[in-house]
Design goal:
The chain has about 90 residues and is α+β, with helices and mostly antiparallel strands. It has one domain: SH3 type barrels, CATH 2.30.30. It is about 15% helix and about 35% strand. It is built from one helix and eight strands; from the N terminus they run ββαββββββ. The strands form two sheets. The protein has a six-stranded antiparallel beta sheet with strand order 6-5-4-3-7-8, with helices on one face. A two-stranded antiparallel sheet has the order 1-2. Strand 3 and strand 4 form a beta hairpin. The longest helix is centred in the N-terminal third of the chain and has 13 residues. The chain is globular, with a radius of gyration of 12 Å. The mean pLDDT is about 95.
């Protein structure tokens, strides 16, 4: 799935919308996978194929690509649950 020029692969629409909203609002997220978690701010990579990346700080010059497959839960500040895999 591609939205606003950013390639999200096979991510569910709900998750793509969450990442887009967080990217635009510069919102901190905690992304939980099965055995580990990553924390930071969503942005996108540069170049011809833009992918979502996670910045440790808003001022960071770069970050790691977000692996959209395998995400179990996503939390915002204050431990607010924003996404849960399989939730309707």
């Amino acid at each position: 799935m591609k939205l606003n020029g950013i390639e999200y692969g096979q991510a569910p629409l709900e998750l793509v919308r969450l990442f887009e909203q967080a990217r635009k609002a510069k919102t901190w997220l905690r992304i939980c996978y099965g055995g580990y978690e990553e924390k930071g701010y969503v942005n996108n990579s540069c170049g011809p194929l833009k992918v979502p990346i996670l910045l440790p700080r808003l001022s960071s010059p770069g970050g790691q690509p977000i692996t959209t497959g395998g995400i179990v839960e996503v939390y915002g500040k204050g431990k607010k649950l924003l996404y849960k895999e399989g939730a309707v």
